[in-house]
Amino acid sequence: MKKYIYCLFLIVHVIAISGCFNKDIEHEDGFGNFDVSSDGELIVFSWINNGQASLYIYDIKKNYVLKKISSSSEASFLNPRFSGDGKNVVFVSNEKNSINSSICVGNIISGKIKKITDTNSIKTEAIFKSNGDSIIYCSANEYGNNSIVTAKTARDFDIYSASISSGLSKRYTNLNAYSLGNLNIDSASTIAFYVFTGDNGGIFKYNSIDGRMSKRIYSLNDASDKAEDYSNPFFIDSNHLLYTVYNRMYIMELNSQKTKSIFSFNSNISNLRYSSTLQRIFFTDESGDGTIYSIDISGKEKRELKLMPRS
After folding, report:
1. Which among 26, 47, 98, 124 has most CB atoms closer than 10 A?
2. What is the DSSP string of 116-179?
3. Residue 13: which domain range?
4. How do residues 185-227 score in pLDDT, each as one tens digit?
């Protein structure tokens, strides 16, 4: 029963991040997603109001929203992620009443936005590559019903890259995954991501330089959790990966594949972010109420931050 409920949650999650609902294309009002700058000073988050999502830049020390970035054409800006230097954000732009979306980059000071990709497919999330001159994003190759009893959803996902200057895109993978997300990249251009394909799902790695796809990541010293239940990968460094299994958080040493449990929460953990300067882990839970929690790297000193947009 637990597995069945989790599968339903993932189906709903895929629909939500792509902005796709059964017939009417709409977004539920409230908190969307977030990211933390590597120095731990800023948070960028999306907030949906009257069906339109805007981005907000929040100063953690000042406890104040510094800037709002929104569209004049009623497009929704979703799933923001910071560049390594914290000066820009990459995000998904979903036009009103449209299924398809594009990837854009915005400067947090000027608010100037540059469209990087076309709008010919459903793109659900994006991150900057380590060098900062290109992006990596998820795109669905199809949109339809998986059965006669389910609503239409984005499906057949793969990973792509695009140059920020030219916009030229390149397909990295040929997975045609039912669901794919939680993109993260280390300094050596290795991409970690989550795939949902039933018993063959879990966390995988892809080397964006030589094109090598790794086998599914799993722990050699802890067999209490199934590898297909691993999700939310986030690199601390090139040899240490954070991930979750439902409401539990782990750190894996990738060379040895040894895992250490560091934290357990009272509900399922939805997203992981990490500040290398503060050495703190940030996360949200499945409630999506705008509360961001943080802990230190050992899983202690839990703090809460309640985000609210400004008009």
Report:
1. 124
2. -S-SSBEEEEEEE-TTSSEEEEEEEEEEE-SSTTS--EEEEEEEEEEETTT--EEE-----BSE
3. 2-306
4. 998 889 999 998 777 899 999 998 888 888 899 999 988 899 9
